[in-house]
Amino acid sequence: MALPTKTDEWVVKSASSTNFNLHLSKSVPIQSLGPNDVLLEIKAISLNYRDLAIARGTYPLPTTFPLIPTSDASALILATGAAITTLAPGTPVLILPAPLHTTGPLTSATHAAPGDGHHPGLLRRHAVLPASWVARYPAHLSYVEAATIGAAGLTAWNALFGAGLPGVAGGAGPRGIRAGDVVLTQGTGAVALFAAGFAVRAGARVIGTTSSAGKTRWLRALGVAEVLNYREDGRWGETARGLTAGGEGVDLVVDVGGAGTLGQSLRAIRYDGTVAVTGFLSGGEDGPGPSLMEVLPRAANVRGILAGSRAQYEEMVGKMEEWEFRPVVDERVFGFGEVEEAYEYLWAQKHVGKVVIEVAK
Ligand SMILES: NC(=O)c1ccc[n+]([C@@H]2O[C@H](COP(=O)([O-])OP(=O)(O)OC[C@H]3O[C@@H](n4cnc5c(N)ncnc54)[C@H](OP(=O)(O)O)[C@@H]3O)[C@@H](O)[C@H]2O)c1
After folding, report:
1. What is the per-residue pLDDT for 284?
2. pLDDT value at position 59?
3. pLDDT in tens, 308-321
4. From CA 23, how far away is CA 20, in angstroms rounded?
5. What kind of architecture, by CATH, is found in domain 6-148+329-358?
6. In CATH, what class is 155-304?
7. SS3 113
8. Least C-beta-crowded within 10 Å: which of 97, 136, 199, 305?
C-alpha cells in the first residue's frame, strides 16, 4: 500500500481569551522519514487541560504560535526509518508525554513534550516522529483507551509511586504509596481518576472529592471509600483528615487544583505527609495560594510533578497489564471534525475521566 504524503492537521493560530482559535489545515505535506523516525497514522487523541490553557493564553510556560496542539495520542506505525530495528510497521504505539525523559530526574535537556508550544503536537492524521518518542501500551487497551494513559496516567503514577513519601527516620529512603496508606484525590478529571484507580489497586484507602453528586458513582466504581463535595464543604481538607485513624491525616494528596486547593490539601495531610502538586485547575482567580510557610506546621512534603520518565511509564504499563486496568474514558468520544466541540466539552467540565477524539470517527 502506498504511504500517505499529505495529511490534515488542526492548528491554534494564536492565544485567545474568548475561543480556542482552532483551524483545520488540509492536505499538508508530511515531513520526510529520517533514518531514526517512524511514520504514524494517528488513531486517537486525548485532550488535556494544558491544551485548553495554551489556546486560552493561560498556560504558565512560554509558548510560540501558531502550533499544532495536544500531546497524547495512540497510533499505528506505517513505516520505519532505515536505522530502526526494534519497531516494525503494523505495530500499535502511543506517543510518550515526556519523550526525552528516559529515566532518573528530569533535566532542562529532557523537559519537552509534543504540543507544549515548542514541539508540534498530535492533533493530525499522520506524524513523522523520532522512534524514541513512541512506546508500546497495554495490549488489552483499545486505541481510544491507549490515547489517555500518557500524560494523565503517568502523572498520577509518578504522584503515587515516584518515591514522594518520606521513609521512616533512620530507615528506608523515600517510597511510593503502599497498602494501608490513605490517599486523597480531587474531582473526577483524568489525573484524579487514574490516581484513585491506581491507589485502590495498590491497596490504599482513597478519599475522593467532586463538585457533582452525579459524578460520585465514578469514584465509587473505582473503589473510592469516601467521597466529599468540595463545593458544599469548603473545609474538605480538614473533613478528610477527620476521616483518618485518630484524625492524623492522609498520607498523600494528589492535588490537581493548585492555588485554590493547596490550602486544604495541606490541612488534609498527616505530619510528614505529602502533597503532590500536578495541576492548576482552579485557575488564577484564587490568587497565589497558601504561603510556603504553611508546610512547616504539618512538616509537609510538597512535590511538583511533570509527567514522568519512560522508565516510570514502563512500570505503569506492567502494573496496568497485571491489574487489567482500564482508564475511564468519557462516554462521549468526538470525531476528527468535532475538535472544537471536544475542546468546549472539556472546558465546561462536563466530562468524567478523559475526553478523546477518534480520528476515523
Ligand atoms: N503535571 C503534569 O505533567 C500534568 C499532566 C496532566 C495533567 N496535568 C494538570 O493536572 C490538572 C488535572 O488534569 P486533568 O486532565 O485531570 O483535568 P480535567 O480532566 O480537566 O479535570 C477536570 C475535573 O477536575 C475537577 N476540578 C476542577 N476544579 C477543581 C477544584 N478547584 N478542586 C477540585 N477538583 C476540581 C472537576 O471534577 P468534578 O466535576 O468532579 O468536580 C473537573 O471536572 C490540570 O491542571 C492539568 O493541566 C498536569
Report:
1. 63
2. 87
3. 999 999 999 999 99
4. 9
5. Alpha-Beta Complex (3.90)
6. alpha beta
7. coil
8. 136
